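Hey team,

Sharing the Zinc ribbon domain-containing protein run so nobody has to redo it. Sequence (120 residues) first:
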Amino acid sequence: MSLARPGTPGATRTCPHCKATILESANVCPSCRHHLRFDPDAVQSAQLRSVPLRVEGTIRPPTGDNALEYSVVLTIRNADGQEIERHVMGVGALFTGEERSFTVEVEAVEVRGYRARRKH
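Structure output:
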């Protein structure tokens, strides 16, 4: 959970469905996609939402009888390059003729009504 106080930008809570840590302001859990509360301003909220980063890729094992093991690791760093978080998102193996596709997406929502504050 974040150190931000409830009601401030960046404050987090636990999804009651999948137990993922999510933003307190979320109306839909980004992990399990369950609706968490009714949003009468859903159209306006959707207009404030953006996807500033989206990366897609596909991997295949080398040809022959060898398998390819993989680990999907997500690392978040601040502007100084210091690691903030690191998570193993999944692991597995691919065999001849198989492939896996991956998408990394960062969703962002503009928070209005708050003055920008920098953490020290």
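DSSP finds one helix and six strands in the chain.

Ping me if you want the raw files.
A.
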